[in-house]
Design a protein that fits this description.
The protein is built from 9 helices and 14 strands. The protein has 259 residues and is α/β, with parallel strands linked by helices.
Length: 259
């Protein structure tokens, strides 16, 4: 599949469209070109520390006006999966207030005292009491679901530990890994994106800065995989990786002449 054949771009956010609160140069111009050529886009973020409404407002401040349906988080995709696999089950949710809000909006009962399933997200309000509670419930054998697998979240000054570090802590204490991970590169979030857009996999491209999530998503799902070098991946990481993108650019704007 060639870049010119892409009908819809699945765009990562952190490290791809912006870093922290700084827009990556040329990102808005890329969106303008996508729209001008009759193509479409959906922001697909693994970061479950915020909800879609937060990202819509953040992008507005950066100069991009979009509606709520142009953003899909791993938290939203997780809610869809829970409705399929564990309808009506009470969930212990390790996450920020934004993730809890997504669960409430999706109609999933949250019960932090007597849950039937355990869900963990990227919780930047994490403390020891939360870690002890989640380990107790995981150790008790409840179904254990994670919104995404990322080890680090890119920032303007480097990286901050992401959910992968939380999963490692839980595993060290309970000897369990999640029974299900929904976000990139796993299929749950891709299935949710396909339902929302009504597109076929053959019409999509996955664009992002991480080899083990974004690029693996494209490769596993059979869509074009496009790496941008504006976030986590370094030249050395790419050189030594077994995950090889179909295309590589320094940033989103470098694709503009090819669209």
């Amino acid at each position: 599949m060639a870049l010119q054949d892409v009908k819809l771009f699945l765009l990562d956010m952190d490290g791809t469209f912006y870093l922290g609160d700084r827009l990556i140069e040329g990102s808005l111009e890329f969106i303008e070109r996508v729209r001008a050529t009759g193509r479409d886009f959906l922001f697909l973020t693994n970061n479950s520390s915020h909800n879609a409404a937060f990202y819509v407002e953040k992008l507005r401040r950066m100069g991009l006006e979009i509606d709520r349906n142009r953003v899909m988080t791993s938290g939203e995709a997780t809610c869809e999966k829970l409705h399929q696999l564990y309808p009506g089950r009470r969930a212990f949710v390790l996450g920020n207030e934004f993730l809890l809000e997504e669960f409430r909006e999706a109609g999933i009962p949250v019960d932090m005292e007597n849950p039937e399933i355990v869900v963990i997200g990227f919780d930047t309000t994490l403390d020891y009491a939360k870690l002890r509670a989640v380990c107790d419930f995981v150790r008790a054998g409840l179904p254990y679901i994670a919104t995404h697998p990322d080890f680090n979240c890119p920032t303007e000054t480097g990286f901050m530990p992401d959910i992968g570090a939380i999963m490692a802590f839980i595993e060290a204490s309970t000897l369990r890994r999640p029974d299900l991970i929904v976000g990139k590169p796993h299929t749950g979030i891709v299935e949710a994106a396909l339902r929302r857009t009504g597109r076929k996999v053959s019409e999509l491209a996955m664009v992002g800065d991480r080899l083990y999530t974004d690029i693996e998503t494209g490769l596993r799902s059979g869509m074009l995989s496009i790496l941008v070098m504006s976030g986590e991946t370094t030249v050395e990481m790419l050189r030594t990786s077994e995950t090889v993108p179909d295309l590589k650019f320094d940033r989103l704007a470098d694709m503009i002449p090819l669209l």
